[in-house]
Amino acid sequence: RAKTSGRSAYRFFEVDMDATILHRTLLEQRLRRAIDEKMVNVFFQPILDLETQGIIGFEALARWTDRDFGEVAPTQFISIAEDSGMIAELADGLFREACETAVTWPNDLFLSFNISQVQLHDRNLPLKIMAALSETGLTPDRLVLEVTETAIMRNPNSARVILDQLAAANIKIALDDFGTGHSSLSFLRDLPINTVKIDRSFTCKMAHNKECAAIVEAVLVLSEGLGLNTVAEGIEQTEVLERLHKSGCHQGQGFLFGAAAPADKIPAMLELARQVRDGQAAGPGSGTDL
Ligand code: C2E
Ligand code: MG
Ligand code: MG
Ligand code: MG
Questions:
Q1: What's the pTM value of the predicted model, to 2 decimals?
Q2: Binning pLDDT at 50, 70 and 90, where does residue 3 land?
Q3: For the EAL domain, which residue ranges apply (predicted)?
């Protein structure tokens, strides 16, 4: 009996594996077509100054809706693109689209763009980025590139060369998802990092989880000591916003302020944020949805 159930468990596992591989293969084909047809697009999530509560920049986030599968999570299709050699083409297209949008914004707003772990180890990355900037007219000082600790860890030496070149070109570097990877605190000292982005898994639980609050506060103290800018991700509650602000966090993003939205929604978002700042409209947490 035990043997039979063992065998059937194995068969279930096998069927399940096949389904996963099939699904991924199908998604890969769909993604290839979507990239060719420019159906993978960039949305923008506002980043606010926690002191003034004004919008100071936007993070570009990739979005893809497949006809049959519906909305596919960027973590999933970015990983497929990395594994199947499509990431360079996908990322180049998204970056260009993001720059073209960002040049239309008031020029004190920055664009924050996620760099995949494959791109971070591409020696041509700095040149490609500079070319896209000069072709679209976005100045390098308005760009922040977000990299993760995990991506740096894959090859810290090549990451250093590339990040140094980007920094020399006046582009800012943010360490994304801070605290979730195999962090080496020496990265913060040795690499040209300007900003630490505190991962949503810590911030979102701050209000009711002492450990998460302690981690966030420690990261803020550490960053302050190193002279680094701090951004908290995933701010959903006013309580969390207030706590972050009190603890000295500089900037933040989250559903409390607004989720990622298409480029054409940005002018209205900026106008509403301006009204909030000038006291003509209610602030976040009081029912206003940016
Ligand atoms: P990330 O760079 O850490 O981006 C932040 C993620 O948190 C985004 O998820 C955003 O929509 C989500 N988020 C922001 N505020 C809140 C909040 O208050 N509550 C909740 N529940 N979520 C919030 P998204 O867009 O699904 O992206 C997931 C990840 O996929 C990103 O994490 C990034 O690692 C990757 N990604 C997205 N777009 C790109 C891209 O263009 N290139 C690369 N290489 N990676 C990308
Ligand atoms: Mg990011
Ligand atoms: Mg992040
Ligand atoms: Mg994150």
A1: 0.92
A2: very low
A3: 24-274
